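Marked as duplicate of an earlier ticket. Keeping the data here for the record.
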Amino acid sequence: MGWFNGWFSTPWYKILYRHRDVEDAAELVLPLIRKGKLRPGHTVLDLGCGRGRHAAIFAREGMVVTGIDLSKASIEEAARKVHEAHFEVHDIREPYATEDFDAVVCLFTSLGYTNDRTDDRKAVAAAAYALKPGGIFVLDLLNGKVVARELVPSENKVIDDVHFRIERLLEGTDIVKRIHVQHGEQIEEFEERVHAWSLPEIISMIQEAGLELEDVTDGTCLQPLDPERSDRIIAWARKRT
């Protein structure tokens, strides 16, 4: 299942990132819906949906939403919290559907967690399979150049009596976050490791999957990407009709 599933499924991950909630997700999803011209009744597949915070906004806005993720714990929580959407445990590298969805989204850096970029290309290809002809694919990844340049080497946080010491560094083409967790006498160590994405890599994956790139924006969905300043890259692609 990989290190990423072990860390993402812990209660510590949920505590550390509790600010990434439905309200936070709405800041991305609402402009995405407008730019993507999605309407109530459109079918949306959320790849790497996690605990369903983005899926909740799509569903609230009237879309028919399916969320898939490798983490059983995340899917179970999503299903408990977002009754309006359907969730399944599924590896996004494997095709989930064929020409069933008006839109497929992969948000908040859900690719790049293995050391094999073939895995990421498989996920984008699976997204293309799932799209109806004319459907839209939205891929949201970190801008490796900017994020690596602005890394905060270390910080300490205390949340709900849980002490987190976080160290960040660039190792090759990976951005690495080492997380020391202490809760009472319990001490655990975790690591996040994600590929430092570049725009040419992202475009290559999209084109290899047979999709047509339409636009590239920053993390607001509203402004053009500034490769030197934008910390996120959002690519918009269309399946040929």
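See parent ticket for discussion. Residues 146-193 form a domain with the N-terminal domain of TfIIb fold (CATH 2.20.25).
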